[in-house]
Write a structure and sequence with these properties.
Elements: H1 4-8, H2 14-21, H3 25-39, H4 43-51, H5 55-71, H6 75-90, H7 94-123
InterPro entries: HPT_dom_sf, Sig_transdc_His_kin_Hpt_dom
Keywords: Phosphoprotein
GO biological process, one term: phosphorelay signal transduction system
């Protein structure tokens, strides 16, 4: 049986989106678009800082990115990002942080086509 956490990593939490935006599809579409165009590219900064083992910067960037992940309904990824932030603040080993980062990045990359598809549906 697959790990339930890995299954949920690339799914959109529609219940959370409805709670946050009260079913306002225009607002959801706007946030999806902003996330894809402006926020998604910034995740590369986290990987760069992990490579440099610059833990204070990793913690700062992940903390800054956390709300965005939640605002587009990527709840499971939000939890992974919180873990990375906590690991960076605790000065965990690079390999430990890289494992969590790899899981997050895989889920994020799998989520992008889903968000793009939803954006098309919401704006058609």
């Amino acid at each position: 049986m697959a790990d339930s956490n890995s299954i949920a990593l690339h799914t959109i939490d529609y219940q959370r989106l409805n709670e946050l935006y009260d079913g306002d599809n225009e607002q959801i579409a706007s946030l999806f678009e902003l996330f894809l165009d402006e926020v998604f590219p910034d995740f590369g900064e986290i990987e760069n800082e992990i490579e440099r083992q610059n833990w204070p910067e990793v913690a700062q960037i992940t903390h800054k990115m956390l709300p965005w992940v939640g605002m587009v309904g990527l709840t499971a990824l939000e939890a992974k990002l919180r873990t990375i932030e906590a690991q960076a603040k605790a000065g965990s080993a690079r390999d430990e942080i890289m494992v969590t980062w790899s899981q997050f990045k895989l889920g994020l990359n799998q989520s992008m086509p889903i968000i793009r598809e939803e954006l098309v549906k919401l704006t058609s």
